[in-house]
Amino acid sequence: MPHARPRSVLLAVFGALVAASLFTSPGRDPAVAQTIPPGLEKIEHLIFIVQENRSFDHYFGTFPGADGLPVVRGKHVACVPDPVLGHRSCTYHTRNLDQIGGPHNHTASTTSVDGGRMDGFIRALPRTQRWCLDRTAAECRPFVGPNLQPDVMSWHDDREIPNYWRYAEEFVLQDAMFAPADSWTLPTHLFLVSGWSAYCTDPNDPMSCSSNLDLREDEQRHTYGERPLYAWTDITWLLHRHDVSWGYYVGSASCSFGTPCGEPPSRNGKTPAAKNPLPGFRTILETKQQDRIQRHEDFYRQVSNGRLPSVSWVVPGQNVSEHPGSKKDIGRGMAHVTRLINAVGRSDLWESSAIFVTWDDWGGFYDHAVPPVVDRNGWGIRVPGFLVSPYARQGFIDHQPLSFDAYLKLIEDRFLGGLRLDPRGGIAQRPDSRPTVREEVALLGDLTLEFDFTQTPRRPLLLDPTPFN
User: Hey, what CATH class is 20-58+159-450 in?
Assistant: First the structure.
């Protein structure tokens, strides 16, 4: 399988930015058109599908050509100390489609990474039966390996997740995609849409915010129906100012703004507020964009009628999230993702779309790659990621260091003329106190290198969402 060789990353350098008040729609503004990286104008729809809680090694650790599990005597295996068994426990293949995983907060990440030794994944498990302290117990038998390893050491391949492997084989696999935050679901989703996770002492003052990777207290995290708590600036503020359409799609009956939804949940289930943080941003109320938070059903309808916005995020309901311990197996999540990709593939939007699929954090599962430290907030432990697009390079493995910050950078480069979530530039009229402009981190790779805009647009890959039925 062809794959890229590791290379140093050169960030695109843009000239002086036109003041934000001078921009109109990127489709009409010559200044924006001139700064779009060559070929990227062919992509009119950026789609980001974000699933839950899996590490790269857990899903793609044995993928040919990828930076996966170490090979020892012809076998993919890595071992870490196991304080319960009193010896080292090793990775193993499992056919079980439901796992327990492990805690995935900042403390668990710090323990798992262990200063770069990447050997604390079992040590991070609390000594309680919820995490199968007694691994011989009957209820724990499905969740341990052949040598009583906890399932944080398990891995899958194309026998359990064949569609994900097919997308990786046919399009682009990212084997250096790191979660943007050294923590759990909510901080990661905040980084997804804003490049930061913070607590604001005054929810109306963007300068009152300071970095926070826990957000465990009620007054630090937004729940549906409450007043906004996140005062800093997110990407939708820039998109709104420059007339760029966007949509954030969640499970039906999620009641994002606390009012009755008037409909039952779909088969996908409701989406918790931790995966749907935009209603908690002050900017959404300021710009009156509440109607941009929509349902999965709206995504399918808009794809079908050719009216999908320029930027789309699709986050799962609980029934299709792949979250360990949800009692909904990973096959449901794979079917959900496959249906979304198939819908775009069957539509008139296929030739103008790029679909990025990733997982929000590592879910407690083993990964051997040491996360780069770009600031006090991360990056976090490595997660799977791949690109599906008619212009995606075929069978390509991207070894560039990436994070969700690269998604923001791509959105900004394609639709905002290179403006950044930077208090000195793109958000100068609504500055905040963010410590790092994540899109400008020198280590961050360039997603445009995953495309070949000289090739004839490739045909869609339409897969059976439920290949085991």
Answer: alpha beta
